[in-house]
What we know:
The chain is an alpha/beta fold. It has helices at residues 2-14, 28-36, 55-61, 74-84, 122-135, 165-171; strands spanning 45-48, 67-71, 91-95, 107-112, 136-147, 154-155, 158-159, 176-187, 193-203.
Amino acid sequence: MTNRIDHWNNIYNTKELNQVSWYQPNPEISLKLIKDSQLPKDAAIIDVGGGDSFLTDRLIDLGYSNITVLDISEKALQRAQQRLGQKAHIVQWIVSDITLFSPQIKYDLWHDRAAFHFLTTQEEIEKYKKALHSGIKKDSHFIVGTFSEIGPDRCSGINIRKYTKEGLAKEFKPDLETLQLYSEKHQTPFNTIQHFTFAHFKKN
């Protein structure tokens, strides 16, 4: 576990914001799916693996006021807080490995574009699902983005698990209803394309 923490802290200590493949100033698909959820602006939203992504900035700009960002890397969250300045107090910041996370509240929306595809064993996936279902309630929304079946085999030096749209939907049945499935071509700062799969679920 310590090695995993050290790995991500080292990345955020040594690379600038626009030097990582997941850099995305305007996370269009995530924002679209969040807007499609039609939640009030005070809905409890958690971004799992959010690090220093711009999703938090954009949600604040849109008027959302009850945002939590969870990441394994304390350094990533510190960078996001520094960028947000006085707006950082709007956000609840949690340093935790998602497989060890015990939610203290029920979220209206759980978003994850960064964590789930790093879980490669069934044991890790089940721990994630346990945290997810502990942290959402009936009618809560779950939005998850992973590398697609034609995406890379590794990210930041770590093996990942790839998903088709159908495979991602199947992973969370029957507890979650599939509302939308998307494919995304993400252009990295290095002018390469990474293929993602997105799924939008609602808890039955």
